[in-house]
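Complex record, two chains
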Amino acid sequence: MSTNFSHTARVIRADQVTPLIKHFSFERVDGKPFSPFSAGSHVVIGMNNGTNTHKNPYSLVGSSNNFMEYEIAVRLDSTGRGGSLFMHNNIELGSEIQIGNPYNLFPVYKPAKKHLMIAGGVGITPFMTYIDEMNLMHSNFELHYSVRDFENGAFAKELQDKYPNQVNLYIQANGVMANFNEILDNQPLGTHVYVCGPQQMVADALRIADEMGWPNSSVHSEEFKAPEPGNPFTVTLAKSDCKINVRSRESLLEALENANIEIPYSCRGGACGFCKTEVIDGEITHRDYFLTDAEKASGNCIMPCISRAQGDHLTLNI
Amino acid sequence: MTEEISEIKSKPVYDILQYDPKSRSNLLVSEGNGLVGLVDFLNGSESIPPSTINVMCAISNAEPLNPSSYISPDRCNKMRLFDSVNALLEDLPVTLSNSQMGLRLYICGSEIFLWRVANLARAAGMHKSEYSMQLIGSKARRVYCPHCKTTSEEVTTDIHECVGCGLSLVNCDHFSREMGAYLGFRVDAEAHGEIPERKELYR
């Protein structure tokens, strides 16, 4: 097991909160508290299906004041690489998984005068801890949450019941769509906006905020990509003097891990920068959000969690 | 007097006011002769819709200017005059708290004024990319004394006596944006009582 994982945890609750979203609560098997975390943090869950280990990042959705439990919500992606399918079909009450330490790539900007959250679908998850914290701190906040239909809106009813004045629900099946121009208009000076959801929704909200004169520093978004399959290739490790084959449906990071090569990681979605690795030879297809355009153009580093070789080989300086 | 370019990176460098075309509304704030900078800015940015422009000017009695004769009423939505800098600075937080995202703030005046306004803007939740400043007028400094934690106002000489502890401080170009003040330190720290002659540098 990778040194990146710190605890073995057991499922103490598993609820199907919508047809596609399953809500899990975990406790440590050694009975000790988990690490404290700040609102917006994620953890990587490791699950072993007998042949290999899936490692997926999930936002923590439970209260940041309860150190005895971690909670996550998993959306089923039946066309994905199998991690969420495994969580839905095989992880149940009493199951044991591995859980990493929390890391926050999407923190709340606490000095903001007002917090405006825009969520789409399972993008609601980081805002569960945001709202909990903002409520405790008596911060001014507003949530705009778009869901396909009420049945598929995870936590929609509990949020609406608890915060009727702050939560605005947009149910697309009823023809109600969030209008970002209206949401972003007339917000008080000092407001920060946070966006989490499908790629197109995030891009639209960011573009409209920019057009409406919101400075980049007041606009925050979170979007993890999952590694996409690609052509198989061979990776040569210069320092360890060995060759590894990367299969079509596994990421470079996963191939290295399967060969017992330890690389630090956190988000596994091209955002955090932990797994940045030096490349000595070979063309790269960059898919991450982390490297600058100049770094990508230089061709001498790669984020192995999500990026691949363009051709049939890469040489890494590890 | 020629001003040497400081090697100290924290010393602010000022430019002329820059219009941000993404702004939804524009608040122009000046003190004394800083009004001249606002007028130049408006003359150079004719595309700014007048309905988006609000002006606040502090007019000192010592150097009377008549802003109305410089900025025509149809060039802005509203122009407000204050008979002192303090009156303007007391009003500004209220004005900012009634403002919306998309506001850009343009500040012109003495260096002390620029940073007093910038700090009110920051307290109102504005980021430095949302305001622009131009220095016209006094370069007199606020100087922070690290020995007694007092800040002396309107210092024009390289060496001055701290208003808090009375030590003779030499001020350097290390600048704190948070405090809007330069750092002073005891000029005779190594040889007590040896105080060099002071020179007026910041007028």
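Note: The first helix of chain B runs from residue 34 to 44.
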